Amino acid sequence: GEQVEQRPPHLSVREGDSAIIICTYTDSATAYFSWYKQEAGAGLQLLMSVLSNVDRKEEQGLTVLLNKKDKRLSLNLTAAHPGDSAVYFCAARDTNAYKVIFGKGTHLHVLP
Amino acid sequence: DMKVTQMPRYLIKRMGENVLLECGQDMSHETMYWYRQDPGLGLQLIYISYDVDSNSEGDIPKGYRVSRKKREHFSLILDSAKTNQTSVYFCASSGGANQAPLFGEGTRLSVL
């Protein structure tokens, strides 16, 4: 089945810098990807989703890039601010269309 | 209001007691999920429900069972809880293959 690797596990950036988180997946047939944000003590908040026919999507300071050839998905937070400090997860929807596989998360710290 | 609601938010039980975690959604989503989240292990899928009385094991179903008698309600049951079931449990629901799951706020379960 699908496997998702996420890196880095921890990331510290200064306010105003960019933060990039990368996920790689194994199943080239995977059709749907998502990014979530989890603040301390809270649930997972959906940030953005992309279908596999989309290479790039931008929304509210977030950019998702999908490289199907390399089976790589990335999330770029441009101009990060302290409120972006959280754990970020990527997710890939398995080809059976119901099972959703998560990366192990990236702890992002944005320093003032 | 699109929401997944989990009850209770916090629960302390003794080893051997039965545990009932409840989840509701107001979006008429067919698919619902139960995950557990542990440090270093990320999110692990326990069960998927495709609709009323149509449930399937996830990756770690041992020690758990589920019940879905109404589309908007999905329960996770631990019969004779064990200390290694101490975790944060998340419920999620999804409206289709191209919709990312939406998550509840989680239930923090401690089994003493």
Output the keywords.
heterodimer; A: 112 residues; mainly beta; 6-stranded mixed sheet; 5-stranded antiparallel sheet; 11 strands; B: 112 residues; 7-stranded mixed sheet; 4-stranded antiparallel sheet; 57% strand; globular
Topology summary:
The complex is a heterodimer of chains A (112) and B (112).
Chain A: E1 4-7, E2 10-14, E3 19-25, E4 32-38, E5 44-51, E6 56-59, E7 62-67, E8 72-77, E9 86-93, E10 100-102, E11 106-111
Parallel strand pairs in A: 2-11
Antiparallel strand pairs in A: 1-3, 3-8, 4-5, 4-9, 6-7, 7-8, 9-10, 9-11
Chain B: E1 4-7, E2 10-13, E3 19-25, E4 31-38, E5 42-51, E6 54-57, E7 65-70, E8 73-78, E9 87-94, E10 102-103, E11 107-111
Parallel strand pairs in B: 2-11
Antiparallel strand pairs in B: 1-3, 3-8, 4-5, 4-9, 5-6, 7-8, 9-10, 9-11
Structure notes:
Chain A has 112 residues and is mainly beta. Chain A contains no helices and eleven strands. In chain A, the strands form two sheets. In chain A, strands 2, 4, 5, 9, 10 and 11 form a six-stranded mixed sheet that branches. A five-stranded antiparallel sheet of chain A has the order 1-3-8-7-6, with no helix packed on it. Chain A is globular and about 40 Å long. The mean pLDDT of chain A is 92. Chain B is mainly β. Chain B has no helices and eleven strands. The mean pLDDT of chain B is 95. Chains A and B meet through strand 4, strand 5 and strand 9 of A and strand 5, strand 9 and strand 10 of B.
